[in-house]
Specification:
Length: about 300
């Protein structure tokens, strides 16, 4: 095999290896993962509990909490990626807690959410507009025909958004190790078959977490979601029959389980993307020790 062929092979994602890297990030080095995640997890859980009275009393501040809740994940993302890609052992208390890489990670997290939200809104507007233009009567009384069209096209739009997010998320390991990339670099790094593999890994992990969340909801009897905080609808429903303290206590198990699942999912995705970045960027070509640890 020539040097060029070997280099090209290193820039290929292997689906099984990506999933193995995802689980290895959390479970193969579990003590490392816990050490990196303990402080951010405590911060996320605290913010989630504090957000409960805010949602009920000052709902306009809910968006501010949603943004601030991304900060602990930025701390964890930088620590895990640097552990995987630079072999740096994470500290229980990072010094500094948030440096330039952490703030950039945080900023790009917000940018990604905004970008995906805007694309989702544009797609929804286009879909509804096209259906209405084709048959205005389909919306009369919310007919089944319109609902079927919206569901089908909405599903395709959701998959497209997932594809976009899957490719652009390569920016995060690059940020963590100080690699000079922008969203354009992340998008171009995964193309063709590599983009589809990355999309498949992203989708499989999301489906796995959704299934675990569904099982947890059935066991606990509470609405469990993959993320921090608690559903506003659940809180408003509980608020009609209980005081604020009782609401917080009632919501706490669901908040705890949701946060645990969020950190588990974040660790899995971080491991998969660290592997994908090392392959697609060419950054890890001279670091055989890192690639061997992944595979």
């Amino acid at each position: 095999m020539s040097h060029d062929e070997l280099a090209e092979g290193r820039r290929q994602i292997r689906f099984g290896a990506a999933l193995a890297a995802a689980f290895a990030c959390v479970f193969a080095g579990f003590s490392r993962f816990v050490r990196a995640a303990l402080l951010p997890f405590a911060a996320s859980l605290t913010l989630a509990v504090l957000s409960i009275p805010v949602i009920l009393t000052l709902p306009l501040l809910d968006l501010a909490f949603t943004v601030v809740e991304l900060l602990p994940y930025a701390v964890l993302g930088v620590a895990l990626n640097r552990a995987l890609l630079l072999n740096e052992e994470p500290r229980l208390l990072p010094r500094p807690l948030l440096d330039g890489r952490g703030w950039r990670y945080f900023g790009y997290s917000i940018l990604m959410i905004i970008l995906v939200s805007v694309l989702a809104a544009l797609m929804a507007a286009v879909v509804v507009g096209l259906i209405y233009a084709g048959n205005p009567r389909s919306f009369a009384g919310g007919t089944l025909q319109a609902g079927n069209w919206i569901f089908g096209v909405g599903l395709l739009a959701g998959l497209l958004l997932l594809y976009v997010a899957a490719r652009l998320s390569l920016i995060f390991p690059a940020i963590a190790i100080g690699h000079h990339w922008g969203l354009g670099n992340a998008w171009r790094a995964a193309r063709g078959a590599q983009a589809l593999k990355l999309f498949a890994v992203f989708g499989v992990l999301c489906i796995l977490l959704a299934v675990i969340g569904g099982i947890a909801s059935a066991i606990t009897g509470q609405q469990i979601h993959i993320g921090t905080g608690v559903s506003e609808a659940v809180l408003i429903e509980q608020a009609t029959a209980a005081g604020l303290g009782d609401i917080v206590l009632a919501a706490l198990p669901g908040v705890l389980v949701s946060t645990v699942l969020a950190y588990l999912g974040f660790g899995l995705l971080t491991g998969a993307y660290a592997y994908a970045f090392s392959r697609l960027s060419g950054w890890g070509a001279a670091r055989e020790d890192i690639l061997e640890r992944f595979e």
